[in-house]
Write a structure and sequence with these properties.
Helix 4 crosses helix 5 and helix 7 packs parallel to helix 8. It contains 10 helices and 11 strands. The chain is α/β, with parallel strands linked by helices. The chain has a 6-stranded mixed β-sheet with strand order 7-8-9-3-10-11, sandwiched between helices. Strands 1, 2, 4, 5 and 6 form a 5-stranded antiparallel β-sheet that branches. The protein has a domain of 189 residues: P-loop containing nucleotide triphosphate hydrolases (Rossmann fold), CATH 3.40.50. Helices cover 36% and strands 25% of the residues.
């Protein structure tokens, strides 16, 4: 399998009053045309890793890496102007909480059209037609109404679908989804995952799925990276996640409630 993305020795640091804090510590991984899950507790470095791929770490943060390559092309050598052409067009990222990612004073359709026209140089009529089709692709029943609506008129599940539509409309090669289902109920969560799975498979994309929900990741992804304190401590096949051996991964798994194996008290994760 040819790798779409290769990350080598990535480190992200932030200066603090007590010294330099390493949010991500010398991690390496690759992504093919697959669904790659990244799991871990809050603060383990998952979201920072996703942002680093797009070089969205701003001053005073420091990003260091031997290589971040998209189909063999090193993104670290790109200028900021060149990176703006890659963001959205070749690599898109669905941020946490869509209500804060969408512009509250712009109609939804105008925002999606803007994302498409920025990269495709299409006319307004072409962008509108493409946007309506993309809203239909994410299973929005009345795309014309949603096109003319504002973000505050949408539910959380609808907002997440709209963000997925906006990120996928430029037809990127890689989608980074940062906690895309964390604020959704189980039924809507399942629908959003099915939409993402269908679109990724049909387009032959690579997906980086960032989450803290081990059960969702094990059922949805192909491979899983487990992160702790900025490091990748274990990599395994998603369907074998519950057989993982690393003490930290075992601690995460043991802290999950299980209906078929009830216990009086859940295990407490022991950290170094």
């Amino acid at each position: 399998m040819t790798n779409l993305l290769e990350v080598e020795n990535l480190t992200v640091k932030f200066p603090t009053r007590s010294g330099m804090f390493e949010a991500v510590r010398n991690i390496s991984f690759s992504l093919g045309r697959e669904r790659l899950g990244i799991v871990g507790e809050s603060g383990s470095g998952k979201s920072i890793t996703g942002r680093s791929i797009l070089r969205l770490i701003r001053h005073p943060g420091i990003l260091e890496a031997k290589r971040i390559a998209l189909e063999g092309e090193d993104l670290l050598t790109k200028s900021e102007r060149e990176m703006r052409k890659i963001r959205g067009h070749k690599i898109s990222m669905v941020m946490q909480d869509p209500k804060f990612s969408l512009n509250p004073v712009m109609r939804i359709g105008d925002q999606i059209c803007e994302a498409y026209r920025l990269h495709a140089k299409a006319s307004k009529a072409e962008a509108r037609e493409k946007t309506i089709k993309m809203l239909e692709a994410v299973l929005i029943r009345d795309p014309e109404r949603v096109f003319n609506a504002y973000p505050h008129e949408m539910s959380g599940g609808m907002g997440q679908r709209i963000m997925i539509a906006m990120m996928l409309i430029p037809d990127p090669q890689i989608l980074i989804a940062d906690e895309p289902t964390s604020a959704l109920d189980v039924t809507v969560q399942k629908e959003v995952l099915e939409i993402m799975d269908k679109l990724v498979r049909e387009r032959g994309m690579g997906l980086i799925f960032i989450s803290h929900d081990l059960n969702v990741v094990s059922a949805f992804c192909d491979r899983v990276l487990i992160m702790y304190a900025g490091r990748i401590v274990e990599t395994c096949q998603a369907d074998k996640l519950h057989e993982a051996k690393h003490p930290y991964t075992r601690g995460l798994l043991n802290s999950l409630p299980q209906l078929e194996h009830p216990v009086d008290r859940l295990a407490v994760l022991q950290r170094d």
